[in-house]
Design a protein that fits this description.
The structure holds two protein chains of two kinds.
Chain A (H helix, E strand, L loop, with lengths): L3 E14 L2 E14 L3 E5 L6 H8 L7 E6 L2 E2 L5 H11 E4 L11 H12 L3 H14 L15 H13 L5 E5 L7 H18 L2 E5 L3 H4 L4 E6 L2 E7 L15
Chain B lengths: L1 H14 L1 H39 L3 E6 L19 H10 L3 E16 L2 E10 L2 H5 L4 E4 L4 H5 L4 E4 L1 H8 L8 E4 L2 E9 L14 E5 H9 L8 E6 L5 H15 L10 E5 H44 L1 H9 L4 H38 L7 H27 L3 H6 L2
The chains are: A alpha/beta, B alpha+beta.
Chain lengths: 243, 406
């Protein structure tokens, strides 16, 4: 384990729900080291989604400090947060969130396009990322020609193509059946183990959370439990691509 | 950023071809109308100018009777004659005058052998050819003696010559004008057509004295019209004022009385015509502007729909690192591309329609590159103006909300 990649101190975030102030995060402090695989769980309304949004620089805390890879990102404006998302973070969502009618390759190229990488290099890097997730033969397929598991692999490739410091996965297996869930978990475990990728994953399924090396439970806007797991469950499929 | 935005715009438009084409329609019609209208208007202006120089811009006409613009005055006595003496006085007293030609006309049948032609016979003086900047191509003009003696001589226009004589030489031949035998002494050089379609060459000139005595059978001094030519176009206005006061003086009009004659110059007539034309084209251009406005609102409407439909896409783009400027550019460029396509299509349609209309109506149509440029600039400008609001709405979306959008 190396130094911390995420350091949060006293993060607070409230929303105005109607005319009632809802305190989603009530002073969360959290440190995640480089190379960890963390699962964040908790009942709905606990604040885990808000926490994920703050970690992902999609949202800005009202108070507290957040250091991401050593940079203070707690008070950045929208464009600066977009820059941070592009350079340091990779996102995987429950609903895959791929661009429709757009090939897998172009979907994966997207973050590089906004980084201004030249088209040729972009294609090469996107193709490599797709090979890494086992979709080297599906470069030109559009999302509706791919299965749910394959779509999520494209999303993972898109998250990885920028070589992010942290992969953020928000219920990545929420829309998948059991077998495909295991496939995706195996892929994530493989990336974590073999490439030392830092993964923060929100899930409410204990089976899925059990695959991580550390389980954090959020309740009522605070961290209720933070447990290291000595023996994470191995997802029972070999990661594709023969790593 | 812009290059990428253009690629995305083309992609998005090609995915919604029908919708894009319908949206373009408003812009297309507006631009087509602008292009066709300016071409037709410009063409009309050019033919007016051409005619002005053909007829001569330094001409002033005087004829009896108050001008119609001051309303109908029912008093028959007020219509005093304009006479040959008036013409003489004008030539004598107004220094900037180059030539004064009183005219007296009749319509008559001209017969030569078995051929005949119905034409206008104009009786005038030697100055007529000078005033109209006309010359005799064959034979001679008539002389002072011809005038004095009311000689039975005439000059024929090219059209009359062609229909009566064909290839034969008319000079020295005798034609019959009505019942009057008359010798052709010369042929007028061809002058061509006026822009209202009249044929200047379909005419016969005679000494004014001959027309009066032999064709009209009258003995007075009155004329139909006096044509006055001024040395330079710049002197026209002043000469007209002098001429008017001279005529008032000669006709012994009190200050309170209206003119009992009318004076017009070609510049005025052209200006009137030009004013009508420009009023008309202003009207048509404002209709075109309304079409463009409506087209712009159509673009805005469709872009707002597009932003709503693609909220999730915007969320994805923001999540992977697009800045709000990237999103703004994407949608702005899409709006501009949409309306610029409309502009190009409208330009093509406008040129086509203008040319077809010009051909069908026999109008002179002049296309100006500047108008095309303005049309394209305007349509792109409409894209910017009406695309900005939807694009800003897209760019200001919150990534979290946008990603959750169903």
């Amino acid at each position: 384990m190396q130094g911390p990649v995420i350091e949060m101190r006293g993060i607070e975030k409230s929303y105005l729900a109607g005319d009632v102030v809802f305190r989603a995060l009530k002073g969360v402090s959290l440190t995640i080291a480089q190379g960890e695989f963390v699962a964040i769980g908790g009942p709905s309304g606990s604040g885990k989604s808000t926490l994920m949004n703050v970690i992902g620089c999609l949202d800005r805390p009202q108070s507290g400090t957040y250091l991401l890879a050593g940079h203070d990102v707690s008070n950045l404006d929208a464009d600066a947060r977009a820059f941070v998302r592009n350079r340091l973070l990779g996102f995987v969502f429950q609903g895959f969130n791929l661009l429709a009618r757009t090939s897998a390759l172009e979907n994966v190229e997207l973050p590089l396009a906004y980084r201004g990488v030249a088209s040729k290099e972009r294609r090469a890097r996107a193709a490599r990322a797709l090979q890494l997730v086992g979709l080297g033969t599906k470069l030109e397929n559009t999302p509706n020609q791919l299965s749910g598991g394959q779509q999520q692999r494209v999303a993972i490739a898109r998250a990885l193509v920028t070589e992010p410091r942290v992969l953020l996965a928000d219920e990545p297996t929420g829309n998948l059946d059991t077998a495909t869930t295991e496939e995706i978990l195996a892929l994530m475990q493989g990336l974590h183990r073999e490439h030392g990728l830092t993964i923060v994953m929100v899930t409410h399924e204990p089976d899925v959370a059990a695959c991580a090396g550390r389980q954090i439970t959020v309740r009522d806007g605070l961290i209720a439990a933070d447990v290291a797991i000595a023996q994470p469950r191995r997802a029972n499929v070999d990661p594709p691509g023969g790593h | 950023m812009w290059w990428m935005a253009l690629r995305l715009a083309l992609l998005s438009l090609s995915r919604n071809k029908l919708r894009a084409s319908l949206t373009m329609l408003g812009i297309l019609i507006g631009v087509a109308a602008v292009v066709a209208m300016t071409a037709i208007g410009e063409g009309a202006k050019e033919s007016i100018e051409k005619q002005m120089t053909a007829v001569g811009v330094n001409l002033i006409w005087v004829w009896p009777g108050a001008s119609a613009s001051s309303g109908v005055r029912g008093d028959a006595n007020r219509t005093a004659a304009v006479t040959e003496d008036d013409a003489r006085a004008i030539g004598r007293e107004i220094t900037s005058v180059l030539a004064v030609a009183p005219t007296l006309g009749v319509s008559a049948q001209v017969v030569y052998g078995a051929r005949n032609a119905a034409t206008r016979i104009t009786g005038t003086t030697l100055d007529y050819l000078t005033a109209r900047d006309w010359s005799v191509s064959r034979g001679r003009s008539f002389t002072e003696a011809d005038l004095r003696m009311a000689a039975k001589v005439c000059l024929i226009g090219e059209t009359v010559r062609a229909s009566l004589f064909g290839r034969a030489d008319p000079v020295g031949e005798t034609v019959r004008i009505g019942k009057l035998p008359c010798q052709v002494v010369g042929v007028l050089a061809p002058k061509g057509q006026g822009s209202f379609g009249q044929d200047y060459d379909d005419t016969v000139l005679m000494p004014i004295t001959s027309v009066r005595a032999r064709l009209r059978g009258s003995s007075g001094r009155e004329v139909d019209q006096i044509m006055v030519s001024v040395r330079t176009p710049a002197q026209v206005r002043r000469a007209q004022a002098q001429l008017t006061s001279l005529m008032r003086q000669r006709h012994r009009l009190q200050d309170s009385e209206e003119n009992d004659f009318s004076v017009r110059n070609l510049q005025e007539m052209m200006e009137t015509f030009e004013r009508t034309r420009s009023t008309l084209s202003t009207l048509l251009l404002s209709i075109a502007a309304i079409a463009l406005l409506v087209g712009g609102i159509g673009v805005m409407n469709i872009m707002l729909v597009s932003v709503t439909e693609r909220t999730r896409e915007i969320g994805i783009r923001l999540a992977v690192g697009a800045r709000s400027g990237d999103i703004l550019a994407q949608f702005l460029v899409e709006a501009v591309t949409l309306s610029a396509f409309g502009g190009v299509a409208g330009l093509a349609l406008g040129v086509g329609a203008g040319a077809a209309l010009g051909k069908a109506m026999d109008w002179n149509v002049t296309f100006q590159p500047l108008a095309a440029l303005v049309a394209l600039g305007t349509s792109s400008g409409i894209g910017v103006v009406f695309g900005f609001f939807p694009a800003r709405r897209a760019a200001s979306l919150d990534p979290i909300t946008a990603l959750r959008h169903e």
